Amino acid sequence: MSKAQAVENKEILQAILIADSHNDNLQPFTSTKPLALLPIANVPLIEYALESLNRNGVEEVIVFCCNHIDQVKRYIQQRQTARCTWSIGMKVSIVSSESCRSIGEAIRDLDARNTIRGNVLLLGVDSVTNADLAALLDEHKRLSKLDRGAVMTVVYKEGLRRMRTGNEVMIAMEPRTRRLLFHQRLAAQQEKERKFELPLELFLGNRDVAVCHGLLDPQIAVCSHAALPLFADNFDFLSRDDFVRGVLINEEILNSRIYVAKLAREEYAMRVNNWQSYHLVSLDVINRWLYPMVPDTAISEFRQQYKHFRNNIYRHGNVRLSRSCELDGDLVVGEESEIREGTYLRQSVVGRGCQIGRNCRIVNSFLMEGASVGDGTVLNHCILGERVKVGEGCTINPGTVLGEGVEIPDRLVVAGLLLQANEPPADEWGTPVQKIADRAYTIPVMDEDDSDSDEDDDKLGQPAMNQPLVIAPLPGRYPASVYEPSDDEGDSRPASPVPEDENIFLSEVVESLKRGFSERTNAEYLILEINSSRYAYNMALCEVNYYVVKAILLIMLQQDGVATNTVGTLRRLLAYFGVVFRNYIRDREAMMNCLRAFEEMCPSSETVRAKLPQLVHYLYEEDLISEEVIIDWHEGLEDVAIKTTLSKLVQWLQESSEEEEEDDED
Fold it and tell me: What pTM did the predictor assign?
């Protein structure tokens, strides 16, 4: 086989990302916004999905979108223009169809386009996971070699005790091969289930049967190429549950089989398909179950956004907090938000630009961008959409969801309602619309008695896959993540790694930079390698800044002629490493980390110590370090010798600054 043929035959790792839930469980948010942009800890759902796929080596993602298509396309294009982490090494394309109303129709559309060329990952944008998807794909490929009829591997996770999210299933499988034999979705309300029925043939036809009850179904699967034509040939396959049920019933006729993969405890997977699961996943992210995709590691960004403090409090650097406000724990406080005197918050998320008044109490509530809360208001297990305004002295009780732009007047009590800003059109099948305020109307809800009974008969009594659940108190204390730092680690970002990990991280950064410099590869790829090492060794961003600069200095000292032409050598290196340097050394804190790397190289390198003023002056001339940072760093130096060496440079900077001020005054 020629090299060209080998490249052509190489299977590209693809993923299908369904961007819609095809239900109204997340109303009123999805009436004006796409599900893909629903924020979890101030990060849109689609970012978690794309970042997870990128980390697992997926090369091409096909996003299938049916609702609010323009908003999804615009967001993807903006993120690709901003060069976020997943946009560099992964191709993301959008396929849209406004007429598509189910996953089955979406897959039939993709099959007609011939866009899938082999095994493919299938998941929804509402599937939040840090699982090793690449390993699941490899296992499915192994099964396909043993059983050519293996069309799908479905992923499950151990469920939560005493809690239902609408994602639970009961399955039966062959324990040795993990072949799926039976599948039934469980009711959202556990107390409604008194007994479970399994067909007798299941036990008569199989020697060993393992029954697993209460597994979580995150709607993640690995599909063989033969799975798509099965959807195309069977128009009654509307959901993935329909597909699984149809294959199990007609296994011999279709010559197709489905296998099961169960995730380990440290692997996380959950589907956000109603407001209660939204509540749960938000707390999971805050409690670090989704590590390394947690708020303080800057999901899909190269720049850290939040600092991590004790009790899982994440604060953006640009927030205004009153001295008397109380942040109890499990909180995310977004950029440009303000929390005033006497306000108490616990287990909540405050979005960008939110304004919270005095003496408020906010518990298990989620405020999206631009929301404002008046003085003395109580929020309890509720959700406030973008630009929602809640007046003074209000009480928003559990289960309430306020849609975009809703305004609640002063001293109003709202109990468990779904509200939107504009009056919806009349619906003869739904409940009557009530006007709560000028900018607050209830959302029509279909009566259970008016639902399609024929469809229920066709499902053989099985509960629907999409079951609406309101946000409500959780049944017990939330379990701590295996990745959560202990209390004795203090107010800090994730625990600093042990020195051995620091040395390994530094050596990997040096090796990546040296290889890139010698091979002249695209410098942006080095950023991806460094970030991969960062997540592997749990490095804080300030430590990454420091070690990247230190690695460049170590490489500089290994170059020929560095002792006689130190600045020229650094200039030559930064001509290539400039992209990497500017990516990490951006703000004041990063510049201080950079100068600290120079400072701490002085005791071990006479070259750096002797040429330190010239090197710092070069960074200043190239606008890589600001004069204010240099002066502040110089004032804090404890090494008298280094401080004296830099005194002339600092004096020159101060005089230049004074002359510029005089010129401005003239």
Answer: 0.70
